[in-house]
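Lab notebook, design round three. We kept the backbone fixed and only want residue identities now. Task for the bench partner: fill in a sequence for the structure below.
Input structure tokens:
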């Protein structure tokens, strides 16, 4: 018959193993939750030298990765986009309605880093602006309305808003939510 001391030692070993298994399961659940939601993983911060540029300028800045722990990611990119909102007329059941659509005028993706393990770091970049920024026009919609719009736009300027320029930094993570940050910039036409 085992002594009281031997029983206590066996119980301690058993509960130590159970505690280790529970800690490992909790750590795995935490990592899975961070992978899916992105909460607690850290952040990506994008900063640029200035917010106003002329056509043909280079946008210089840096991407700061403030990560809680190193992350395996597919790539780190910076995307420059130009979007313009335009008035869109449609006819539905004999009723003419007006709406707005956002037309993508320009998009440029620059890769700052490929597939690797990313940690807390800063990466500088330079993205060139196109020289013809003021001459970009949104495409006309497809179909009959688009044909009419193209004909009318040659006579009357289309109802459209200003061109909105945005720079976005993204840490693209496999099987998880990407970490990203955007900055609006002004490009003088």
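Proposed sequence:
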């Amino acid at each position: 018959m085992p002594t009281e001391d031997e029983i206590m030692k066996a119980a301690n070993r058993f509960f130590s193993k159970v505690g280790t298994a529970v800690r490992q399961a909790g750590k795995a659940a935490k990592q899975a939750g961070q992978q899916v939601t992105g909460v607690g993983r850290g952040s990506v911060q994008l900063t640029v030298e200035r917010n106003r540029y002329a056509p043909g300028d280079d946008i210089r800045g840096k991407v700061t990765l403030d990560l809680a722990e190193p992350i395996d990611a597919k790539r780190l990119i910076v995307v420059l986009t130009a979007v313009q909102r335009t008035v869109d007329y449609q006819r539905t059941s004999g009723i003419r309605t007006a709406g707005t659509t956002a037309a993508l005028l320009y998009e440029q993706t620059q890769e700052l880093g490929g597939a690797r393990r990313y940690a807390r770091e800063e990466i500088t970049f330079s993205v060139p602006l196109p020289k013809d920024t003021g001459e970009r026009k949104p495409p006309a919609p497809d179909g009959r309305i688009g044909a009419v719009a193209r004909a009318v736009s040659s006579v009357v300027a289309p109802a459209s808003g200003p061109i909105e320029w945005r720079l976005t930094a993204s840490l693209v993570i496999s099987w998880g939510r990407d970490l990203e940050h955007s900055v609006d910039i002004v490009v003088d036409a």
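Keep this in mind before ordering anything: Strands lie at 42-48, 52-53, 58-67, 71-73, 75-92, 95-113, 116-118, 121-128, 160-172, 179-187.
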